[in-house]
Amino acid sequence: MRPIPPQLKLEIITSYLNGFSHREISRESGISLGSISNVLESLKSERKEFEELRLLSQTIKNNGLSLSKIFEAIHFLLWLKRYNIKCEFVIQMLDHMNTESFRFDLDLENFFHRLSSLLTYEKSIGIKIEDLFYLMEDKLGERQKLEEEINRLYNVYKVTKKELHEYKENKDLFLNFLNPHNEYKIPTKINWIMNEFDYKKACELFGQKFNTRDLYNKLYQVYQQPEKYPNLVKRILNLD
Questions:
Q1: What was the pLDDT predicted at 185?
Q2: Which pTM does this prediction carry?
Q3: What is the mean pLDDT of residues 221-225?
Q4: Rounded distance, CA 222 to CA 215, Å?
Q5: Type and span of the H or E element at 191
Q6: Are 167 and 174 in contact (CB under 8 A)?
């Protein structure tokens, strides 16, 4: 029996790996069944993984895959091995995420995109997503303590939120007033405090008691918007 040429032997092996039977290879190549069996049995004895390669080739073919996809799968498995992650865990995770994606009325691709955005946000703020709930609880606790402190300070100093806001808006004017080198003085609540003796004297003059806070608010309003009270401002400043 003449030896089979190497090129023809390679075609026999390739056909077998692609899932063709001995008889199909014989019919296509014109080589006897005995010669084909000898070639394949010889290779099987040299390469024990040969049948596994044939099974892998059939699996690839039956699932409509390509070699590039197989290489991607190998790369992915090597990545899992590097981080000591089991493939079964990834499969279970994907099944779980697929269920969760339906709960949010998203397909799996958009669900992964949303998850990626969350992880990017997590990295930007330096806080893990699962820690946000506890962080919010801590901040709410801090806010409650601040509100309690504000209420305590109000009870001590009788300063309202409106007055605090007023101070914030006029802070520069207030600091300017405190500057000893300032050429003019800006009226503030500090130098509008009425002592008890003056208050009693004013009540006797008016024939009734009055609320000093109301007086301050009215006069401060005149100071803030003198254009609305031209006659009163003229009388106070003797401009007539």
A1: 47
A2: 0.30
A3: 85
A4: 11
A5: none
A6: yes
